[in-house]
Amino acid sequence: MADVLLRVNHLKKYFDTPGGTLHAVDDISFDLKRGETLGVVGESGCGKSTLGRTILRLYEPTEGDVYFEGQEITSLSNKSMKALRRDMQIIFQDPFASLNPRMTVSEMIAESLLIQKIFTRKQGPQLRARVSELMDLVGLSPKLINSYPHELDGGRRQRIGIARVLALDPKFVVCDEPVSALDVSIQAQILNLMQDLQDEFGLTYLFITHDLSVVKHLSNDIIVMYLGQMVEKAPAKELFSHPMHPYTKALLSAIPVPDPDYAVDRVLLKGELTSPIDPLPGCRFAKRCPFATEACTKADIPLREITPGHFAACILV
Ligand SMILES: Nc1ncnc2c1ncn2[C@@H]1O[C@H](COP(=O)(O)OP(=O)(O)O)[C@@H](O)[C@H]1O
Ligand SMILES: [Mg+2]
Fold first, then answer.
1. What confidence tens digit (pLDDT) does each residue in 212-236 have?
2. Which ligand is the nearest neighbour of the Cα of 18?
3. 9, 106, 156, 179: which could join 187 in a potential S-S bond, CB 3.0 to 4.6 Å?
4. Strand order in 204-209's β-sheet?
């Protein structure tokens, strides 16, 4: 039985903005087992990145707890948190933004090992050997060792980003839209690589994407977020075959590739995603939902287990 590596308990992250309090992450709870992948999907602005960053304490949570290997980490001092940094890592959408344009591939990977003091500058031969090993693990040709980021395509740059994270031998990785900036053909290569690395090193992923098709094959469970809240959660296959929440159905019907295994009623999204500033009670999707009734906006809609392991927050389900 896989054990729980990460437990997120009623996590909230609010931002004070000139317009009011923005509920970016509003009461999210889940367990993530070691070696598994939890997909987090939803439109841009629904709070996915904030969720990932708050779990890692790159943002301080407004409320709620995060347990990592059974230890509550939201109340840890910065010093104790530092010790956990290697175990809990993040991969971003655009590694180019975080790569130093004046560093070569080997320097960028070596930097990661040096910053975390896994090697010192004096250990040149060992450091170089480890860099070569990491390049091999992420499928970067040894020929690229002295290349600069601008000489590489997006897929290779993301491989560097992955190597820099893998260098730290993490247990948990927040993958924040890691393939969203890549061509579809390269997306598949990077997803395969991430899957292989997960199998080989027992990595646990929180995989964030606005594109449901990306997490379909990679995730054990998927949560669907809407304006800071979880509206549905289910095992990946179940979510695709029996979506329950009108919002999930709308997201699924936007996936371009028709799949005869999955019967999807088309629900078209009307209107825009607004900001969750001082939200009113009730379903936040009601304004855009074709099935909304008066009851939907009367009170908050709790997440309920509709069938075993399948949760949805909708009174019409
Ligand atoms: N540092 C911040 N200060 C104020 N508002 C923020 C900040 N970061 C994110 N937000 C707001 O929180 C909401 C969720 O943003 P984000 O987590 O980036 O969404 P996603 O990753 O799903 O696109 C958005 O309305 C965004 O404008
Ligand atoms: Mg984001």
1. 889 998 999 999 999 999 999 999 9
2. 1
3. 179
4. 88-91, 172-176, 204-209, 37-41, 221-226, 229-235, 310-312, 304-307
